[in-house]
Amino acid sequence: MPLMSAFLTLFTWIMVIIVLVSFLLWTIGMYFRKKQGSFLYFPSEPPNSRNMCASPADAGILNFECVSISTLDGQVLKGYLMWPYPPSSAFSTGNGKVSDALSTKTFECGATPPLAHDSSNSPNEMPPFVLLFFHGNSGNVGHRLAAAKLFLATLKCAVLMVDYRGYGLSSSAAVTQEGLEIDAQACLDFIKHDERLPQESVYVMGTSLGAAVALHLAAKPRNARSISGVIVENTFTSISDMVVILANSVIHLLRVPCPRFALLCFSYYVLPLTLHLKWENIGILHKISAPMLFLSGLKDELVPPEQMRLLYQAACAKNHKGNPLRRLVTFREGSHNDMLLCDGYFQAISDFVNDVEKSKISDFI
């Protein structure tokens, strides 16, 4: 009996300690909940990113519009709609005259934006497809204009780049996953209401964090028929997986005893109580019925390439009606931010779009 009593006392104290530690971790997590975003979102990097944004004209892009998009929760997003054609083609009116090459378009979510030209343009003046591009977790759209210029020149598509809330010249608001998802939906709605853009050929693309935004946008059932394809580049399976990778590095760096046990405790005990950042990309792939292209740099120094492979495998494992295209393209020399420079990068995107468009014709026939 004394032995049993001692055991019960020890067990009770262990449980009390676990409860107290759990409560402490939960409290710390709640206290730093709003501050956790500062470890993921960097809208002020590089310096002046919140008050200065380069114009497409600075990058040699002649044909563009400044856009202002209002979201359902009252935020205003700023960005650019860029065209592959010269103004005389992209903005020609029904009477043969040319409207202003540079215009400002304002769109309130749920309303139809005014067109900058007469909608009687001939079909051959419409871009073959439109690319809705979501950038990563730092800087603004001005830092991606070199990429936009290459998209315009090589793919001949229209490109919409817009800053999230809290980024660039967009509204000053807290940056959260919920907010970014609302912003992405507003951008897609903007495209859907512009008759100059090919509504049957809308592709969403994102790099790093932007890829997570693109995936969550495509996963919404309401968008299943609005998105022709999804292109994701160097992104992660989830924020928690990325934190576990970081924790594993720290554990080995500090030479913590029993590193595997320590990592298990962190992953399944500490992390669930403290981490509020989600972006569970791998968990939503089963909701995406659109064709998908995964672009992975094998020398990515920020996101392990293994995570892109896991995303691709998860996407392939989900059975969708019609077996939509799933394609993984790797670049041996590609790092996190220089994929544009890799041989075959634009060809991979072009081939993907062409294959998707051809499959539409086959399905129609």
Textual characterization of the structure:
It is a single chain. By secondary structure, the protein is α/β, with parallel strands linked by helices. The protein has one domain (56-239, 277-364): Alpha/Beta hydrolase fold, catalytic domain (Rossmann fold, 3-Layer(aba) Sandwich), CATH 3.40.50. The protein is 37% helix and 15% strand. It has 9 helices and 9 strands. A 9-stranded mixed beta sheet has the order 3-1-2-5-4-6-7-8-9, sandwiched between helices. Helix 1 packs across helix 7. The radius of gyration is 24 Å and the shape is globular. Mean pLDDT is 85; it is low at 87-102 and 110-124.
- CATH-defined topology: Rossmann fold
> Count of DSSP E strands?
9
- CATH H-level homologous superfamily name: Alpha/Beta hydrolase fold, catalytic domain
Helical element count?
Answer: 9
Oligomeric state as shown = single chain
- What is the topology, as strand order, of the major beta sheet? 3-1-2-5-4-6-7-8-9
Total number of domains? 1
- Global outline: globular
Hey, roughly how much beta strand do the residues contain?
A: 5-15%
**In angstroms, what separates the terminal alpha carbons?**
82 Å
How large is the radius of gyration? Answer: 24 Å
Fraction of residues in helices? 25-40%
- Please name the CATH architecture: 3-Layer(aba) Sandwich
Average pLDDT level: 85
Unreliable spans: 87-102, 110-124
Name the CATH class: Alpha Beta
Order of helices and strands: HEEHEEHEHEHEHHEHEH
Counting helices, strands and paired strands, the structural category is alpha/beta
Largest sheet: 9 strands, mixed
